[in-house]
Amino acid sequence: MVEIDARQRLKILIGGVSLLALGNCGGGGSNTSTPTPTPTPTTPTPVGYQPTSGLFRNQYRNNFKIGSSVQTFHIQNSDPLIDVLKDQFSSMLAEYEMKPDSIAPTEGSFDFSTADTLVQFAEDNGLDMQGHTLLWHQSTPDYFFQGSKDQIKARLQNYVTEVVSRYRDRISVWHVVNEVISDADNGPAGPYRNSNWYQAVGSGEFIDWAFEAARAADPNAQLLINEYNTEFPDKRGRLLQVVQDLLDRNIPIDGVGHQCHLDLNDSAESVFAAIDAVDDLFAGLVNHITELDMSVYSDPGSCWETQTNCDTDYGDNLPESISKQQAQTFRDIFNGLILRPSVETVSFWGISDKTSWLNTIPTTRTNYPLLFDRDVQAKPSFRAIVDRFYEI
Ligand code: XIL
Question: Which pick of 21, 278, 330, 363 has the fewest CB atoms within 10 Å?
Answer without folding.
Answer: 363
